[in-house]
Amino acid sequence: MIAFVLRRLGSAVPTLFIVVTISFFLMRFAPGGPFNLERPLPPATMENLMRTYQLDQPLWRQYITYLSNAVTGDFGPSYIYKDNTVAELIGKGLPYSIELGFYALLLALVGGVTMGTIAALRQNSVLDFSIMSLATVGTTIPNFVVGPVLTLIFAIMLSLLPAGGWGDGSLSFLILPMIALALPQLAVFARLTRGSMIEALHADHIRTARAYGLPARVVVVTHAMRGAMLPVVSYLAPCAAALMTGSAVVETIFTIPGVGRYFVLGALNRDYTLVMGTVVLIAIFVIVFNLVVDILYGLLDPRVRHD
Amino acid sequence: MTDNKQTILAVRDLKVDFTTPDGTVNAVKGIDLDIRTGETLAVVGESGSGKSQTMMAIMGLLAKNGGVRGSATYRGQELVGLAPDQLNKVRGAKVTMIFQEPMTSLDPLYKIGRQIAEPILYHRGGSRAEARARVLELLELVGIPEPERRIDSYPHELSGGQRQRVMIAMALANEPDILIADEPTTALDVTIQAQILALLRSLQRRFGMAIVLITHDLGIVRHFAERVVVMRRGELVEQGATQEIFERPQSDYTKMLLAAEPHGRKAPPPETAPVILEGRNVVVDFQIGGGLFSGGKRYFRGVDGVTLRLHEGQTIGVVGESGSGKSTLGRALLRLIHSEGIYRFGSTDISRLDRKQMRPLRKEMQLVFQDPYGSLSPRQTVGEVITEGLMVHEPGLSRADRDRRAMAALEEVGLDPAARNRYPHEFSGGQRQRIAIARAIILKPRVVILDEPTSALDRSVQGQVIDLLRTLQQSHKLSYIFISHDLSVVRAISDYLVVMKDGKIVEQGDTQDIFDAPQDAYTKALIGAAFSI
Lengths: 307, 533
Known about the structure:
Number of helices of chain B: 19
Oligomer: heterodimer
Membrane topology (chain A): Multi-pass membrane protein
Shape of chain B: globular
Protein name (chain A): Oligopeptide ABC transporter permease OppB
CATH architecture of the domain at 94-304 in chain A: Orthogonal Bundle
Distance between the termini of chain A: 5 Å
Organism (chain A): Neorhizobium lilium
Order of helices and strands of chain A: HHHHHHHHHHHH
Subcellular location (chain A): Cell membrane
GO biological process, one term (chain A): transmembrane transport
Number of strands of chain A: 0
Strand order of the largest sheet of chain B: 6-7-8-3-9-10
């Protein structure tokens, strides 16, 4: 098990390297630069800026410099938030994004799995159809619509919850953004669970369990659920990574100081270092959660156990 | 049959219907059946006869779209329509069941010890430790070696035969009155089949439960059952003592079933017949484990130095149990997998040909698979399926020409040429296998490798497919390699026999000679098991 984890962490190094390399060059090949503003800067200022940020160096040298700095945890200064380094920006915003993302993940997982299981057990009933239609609605309505509508109803009309901001970080500030963030994922979990649960309920070993007089609750929870959770667990990794690295839309609508908006802002402004920092962050999250999921998967399914 | 035996399960006018999008299917159309203490009753029928659904209905295990009417009383208690919690007191305790698919009937995610213990705990209560002790006792009883170690195994760590033993242990756990065995040995190798049946028989002698054996295999019935019930299309055709049924069958259907054992023999080709396909010192290694970061590669030798010569017009039967390397050998001979050795097709050395160089020869060498459900693309029409090869090998043909060839091929395998516009799922297993054969012969090959082509089919359908293969062999001068674990089929169709075990040939020679006087101990065991159970 420990050997497996170490091996996987070892293989993460080349993965990260490839991700960094590809995004570094892709970013640079895109037209424009961080200081190409609407009103062009005087050539002297431009030259100065380029020198300060070492953008006048040949590309390969910039790449080497970036890599060797990144290895030490130095992701360089941000070009648009000029007083901050990328590491500081991410360090400040990430806890908010992780907390919000974690609650959203919990809501999506618990809600989605419960709804999916109920739908599967009542397959083709009215309840099943209503849950699945709801899930479709959840996936199709974009969160820049869900967010404002939630605010309108619960914050403005009913005055039950704050309309935005982090406040003191209490739950009341988290509820609305959490729902907006979780809804599409909840729909995916519900769909996945329903599908795999229906399949699991038709498995031969479920027939065996029923033939041996085990109570319905045991058949469903012990024997069907565990197998049905396997595809759900697989989806957990990309979902957790996406939710916890922040959503530009939801964080902007609810004015949450997370890291979600950095990726979009950085990309739009050709803030090379900020985009690179965000890419590395997302890559690390994906790698870590994939590892967590693989370990979970092994715990659930003895056939793929890593020993 | 003694009259003092008491009826413990009485089935009266039992009907099972399934609601499908195409209307209601009457799977069981009102049957009467008695099961008496300690007897062995065989329920015989081909697929679709309703033999399994009858038992499923009694056990309350029908699929959701299935409905049951009529009556099934266990010691006076009506089981049809019984509330689930009441039914759960009977099933798994008084009436237990083992299934055909030992590979999937156990939950892959739990240790076998826990799975056997579950019904004990639910029906008898007691502590986990007591249940565990009982499980060890049961594993010992069903002949699982090293029960203390095996109790903590997962199903995937056991062989098919062992899993079926685990199922039997589960079935015995609460000392049932009735054990329903639904095709318990169909998925197992013949030597394992014999062991499982012997085990069931000895356990029955010890514990005195009644066994209901659902099967399509009359060979098993003759040696195992006291009474036989023959079912067809949801109706009870005939019932009586085993000996009566076998010696004096009353209905035409029973007579047909009894006569459906593969018959006929094949004469060897003339001595002068040239060799058409040859493989010398065939070796196939499979890599197991080993990846980018996991270090050492390990190999498993699937085929270990086999030499085989197929003469024109010959049928070589390759028999062996699962894992013997017989299918792998077939694929190696067709150069479909990486393998070592020297291969010749006619006078051409094909040992070193790459995929592209092999392509023109592919037309001459065709393969028919076991699974007529999985080997036909469900999204292509039958016409598209069988003419796909023509597009590659005879690209000059016009659409009309291809269509004509498809019609001719379908006609030749005994199907309506109109079938080409329909999809594979609309056909029965036997018809699908005919489609797969049409796909092979449409290219006018010289060699066809048949990999268990009849194993998934009912006996009566098997006979038809074998007759078809024989006719085609003559009209197209085909040479066959017939891979099978079914010795009676191989005896009927092949003139040369190769017996494989662990990747090696243990015995080969004239089919009839080997069946009459097998030399090797393994061959003897195989033939013994196949014809004595």
